[in-house]
Amino acid sequence: MKRFSILLVALMAMTLFTGIGAFAAESVLTIGVDQEAVGLDPHVVTAFSSMRRIDLLYNRLVRLDDNFVVVPDLAESWDVPDNLTYVFHLRKGVKFHNGRELKADDVKYSLERVLDPKTASPGRSYISLITAITIVDPYTVKLTLSAPLASLLDGLTSNNLSIVAKEVVDANGNLQKVEAGTGPFMLKEWIADNSMTLAKNPNYFEKGIPYLDKVIYRVIPEQASLLAGVKSGDLNMATINDGATIRQAAKDSKVVVMNKPGLNERIFSFNCTVKPFDDVRVRQAVASILDRNEILTIAEFGMGKPTGPVPVAATQWALPLAKLPFATPDAAKAKKLLSDAGYPNGFTFKITCSTTYEGGLAVAQVAQEELKKIGVTAELEVVEWGVYIDKWVKRDFATMIELRGGSGEPDRFLYRTFHSTGGVNNFLFKDADVDKLLDAGRNQTVLADRKASYDKLQSLLIEKAPAVFLYSPNENQVMSPKVSGFKQIGNGSLFYITYTKVAP
Question: Does some domain include residue 20?
């Protein structure tokens, strides 16, 4: 009897400790991505690979939900007493990852850092009309504008407008290798070209959130290997863009495929200061021969939609392609334009691209073949991802295949991209008529007036051709059936990992 009692106690103890162990097991989401982050400074970077980390490390005053609606983030509410004044009321008790409470002066510092031309922030154009940032009290900030800016709230949802801790910037010079956020997760470990581990922020302002203890980003360049990782259980989730791989995944019962029409745009970019692309007729000739449908079918297996300057998913603003110039390939027209520009026998040039999805090698290969139809020889300059980004930043290219982050708000996408002062006008494109319409569109607060301006602008951008607007790819996520709670926004953001769970 005594021996039985001892055995029973031992058994109960084992059960208890086993239960505690199971209860204490970490909840980890491992997500596969095809390229490394190029840095983590939210005020500086533009690459999707970086933004997908920044999504979880930082907060902005406001953010977009999965229906593109502007909702509270660090600001729990805001007032707009007139169209030149915005007053934001901050949440109390929000803490940076270093333990310090976030207050109004952090908002002022962060927005002024973005506005400082020395920062060279791509987010500057979103808020360039701000003339004063006033601290009303420790939890209230007032923004004063020089003119109405209809897109201000939408612009403030950008990761480029994240609120950061000044002392961390001062200590490190920038935030490319460290972070200074308030987000749901904190940077724990970064092994270059391998993995990045984020740990749960125990002081996040949403109680009980996030559900996960860790998020691990694993860099796996091959799209097929990403799918294999999800199927094997090595990955819980993967951002996969290759159309053939997505088709294969859709037929596999071991994985779940989520897709949503995207706001991003695949474009064929010109450096408008490099010959022969300083001649609009040459740019128009290229625009006249590139076949959006063929490129989409071959490069993306049809998983997207042809588009003009405004992403096709922004249905309130985007004009149908049929109403825009150069909507249909026309070889005869392209050849005449080349002849008029002094290139009756064509010419040779380089297309800069990269083997990563964002770098658009597959698109470049299709474009290369199509250009042969008008006697133009395109040589592919295929470079490593880091070199690609460097060339993009330095405007060191003749043409380039890009994936640009779009928006449902036309000012937010088009102004910074095509205005002569735009933060990411890598085309070095300047046109007074385009600038005039861009300035008008952002200042107009009557919907009908704005619509008329952006309708004219879309046609003008096609005619001036700083880029050829090709298509908007679908946004795809492939995941294990054990993953729940994730939502797609449509702009590439992984913010909803904040509310994601992984079953044992």
Answer: no
